[in-house]
Amino acid sequence: MTVVAELLAIGDELVHGAGLDTNSKWLAGELERIGAAVHRFGVTSDDPGHLRGAIAEACARADVVVATGGLGPTLDDRTRDVVADLLGGPLWFDPASWQQIQDWLRSRGRPVPDSNRRQAFFPPGALPIGNPCGTAPGFAVPIGRARFFALPGVPREMQALAGTHVLPAVAALPGLRPVAQSWLRVLGPSEALLGERIAPFMVAGRNPAVGVTAQSGLLTIRIVAAAATREQAEAQCAATAAELRPLVREWLFAEGLLDLPELVVQRLLAAGRTLALAESCTGGLAASRLVDVPGASSVFAGGVVAYGNAAKLELLGVPGELLQRHGAVSEPVAAAMAEGARARFHADLAVATTGIAGPGGGTPDKPVGTVCLALATGAGARAATLKLPDLGRGFVRERAVHEVWRLLLGAGDAAFVAAARL
Amino acid sequence: MTVVAELLAIGDELVHGAGLDTNSKWLAGELERIGAAVHRFGVTSDDPGHLRGAIAEACARADVVVATGGLGPTLDDRTRDVVADLLGGPLWFDPASWQQIQDWLRSRGRPVPDSNRRQAFFPPGALPIGNPCGTAPGFAVPIGRARFFALPGVPREMQALAGTHVLPAVAALPGLRPVAQSWLRVLGPSEALLGERIAPFMVAGRNPAVGVTAQSGLLTIRIVAAAATREQAEAQCAATAAELRPLVREWLFAEGLLDLPELVVQRLLAAGRTLALAESCTGGLAASRLVDVPGASSVFAGGVVAYGNAAKLELLGVPGELLQRHGAVSEPVAAAMAEGARARFHADLAVATTGIAGPGGGTPDKPVGTVCLALATGAGARAATLKLPDLGRGFVRERAVHEVWRLLLGAGDAAFVAAARL
Description:
homodimer; about 425 residues; alpha/beta; Molybdenum Cofactor Biosythetic Enzyme, Chain A; Maf protein; 3 domains; six-stranded mixed β-sheet; five-stranded mixed β-sheet; 17 strands; about 25% strand
């Protein structure tokens, strides 16, 4: 027996290609962690007919269905109406929910539009789920074989309600098989080459399952184990990881379920070091990813997006003579950018990127995809040139940022010293 | 008669919450533009049973089904096998596709692993779709009532194959009803307040349909019309936009289907002006969004992520006395940051952000959500203080970036002068 969960994202903007569902991804990870099996998600428009069909089908297949979206105050939010229709009864008004909505708005000094009252109506038999972060309460109601949960579409509200109500309710069901994951991060080989190396691990039905995903050249080997307890699942993951590690040693540079910028922040915090960035071709992308990590401000001293030569000269102190002699995309300029950023931000380490992301700007000597990276430490700066495949501007920039993380993570804690790689 | 399309994203990493499907969003927009109606998407694991069920169900409901993913060279890529099984026949080998794959790899100086040969096998009756950007060919094959298309999961490869094969094939079907969209961008009111203002437009079944989506305080009014021709649909959108505009005049600051950073780049290009950024609380997020736009380098002079006071002093030349007297989050410091960035990057305009994104750092006087924005032009700098709702670090940073775009877009082309708003 397993607990099967399905996710349903609701909203015209999603099926019209004007918005992206990120809620189901988050919910899938959380539900699997506690032991529900997620095999499918759906996305549907607000159209009452399609919405009704999608909810009914999911509730016929799964034990737990979590729908997100369609609980707003505007007339195009129809989840509550469609569920009431599906259950064959009228909506009922919950004065306590209406009071919560008014309190929430007033406490933020906002007016209380009468239309928010819509959000205090619920389908027959539904249990309201109060929303501490917004005006849209969720609700729980049995539909068919499923426990159906409706949550607001705003991610932080959805996460709050899932955390206090949905996940605890699911965690109490019998038949859970907790899932554990391990990720190995690899840069270098093609997906096919990596797949050959670890092929025996990738057969269908293996537990732990092993899969590979590629994102702008970054390959992630995902190990996923399901077991009777979380501890067993984790032990199985660890055992498979131990078998895989020697097979991918030369490409492996990071492990764990944290995103790479999170890992970098964690390592910098642990080492008590600060980092500065000087970005030309990556144009603030690396800085932005770092700043997304809570706590980054204590290790990230700052960065410069130095596109033009003027910025490289004046903000980073790159000698004009270096720019003239070697060009902006060169190892000496990358090294000078890193040293300049390290000095000006008073940082322990600095990384610089300068390259040709395309679509224009390539030459026979320095084609699109040429990226120079440099790392400056107290012991000086070192630089290297990468020839990345020209798979589009976005690819080159993303791939260059992966290389920044590898530079910082791959060289080992000892000194984050470039020598090991550059 | 309409042409109903469904999208299916395939991959264990998607249902395990380790990856996000962005392909269906893009395909939905493109398919609707040419006149197919998209009501639902699905996401499914690589598990053969679930994959087979999801493909069979979609092909029973829709006229066109486009699946993405599961065509890679590794053993966890099973789309071709599952489709062959569904069609009750063996896979067949296409030497021409295998040659293309080898040529593609060799032309990039990569080895040709034997496992890539898997990618040249196709289900019975399938038409291979050559891939100019990678090793995974797609294929087209009828399943049930549907034309089924399998495309690779890598977005740039998927988009290339969709553009050359899927969209032209769909565009030739009878019964298309092209869809046009218009978006009005609004900052200021709550979603409920905006919904009340435009309620008569938001009733179910209206054509054009009008909906509202919220993203970190940015409200987008989406107008979606379907008609016999694209021109008619566009005219209907324009008519509804003309009715809505006066109702939201005081909050409206941008229109069109471009993302806001794209609009900013377009306006800067049109005005022949360059922009620099000095970001404290937004930490490179605004710069990164700008740099994502192709062509940004000709208008974006550069930016500084100046978290700490040292960076504000040394890189932007903010007087230490201002920092001491007013604090880093203050209008005088924001103005000095903008002036410093404008001067150092030799830009026509510069915008600075400094604020408290949380979770820590708030005071009774300057709570989390306090953000100072400044705009420097040739005529000097002006600054303003925003009190954004404390809905989390991510919200405050995103909302502050929306305000940067409003600052640049809202004041009109004449001078991008702050006076109009600040």
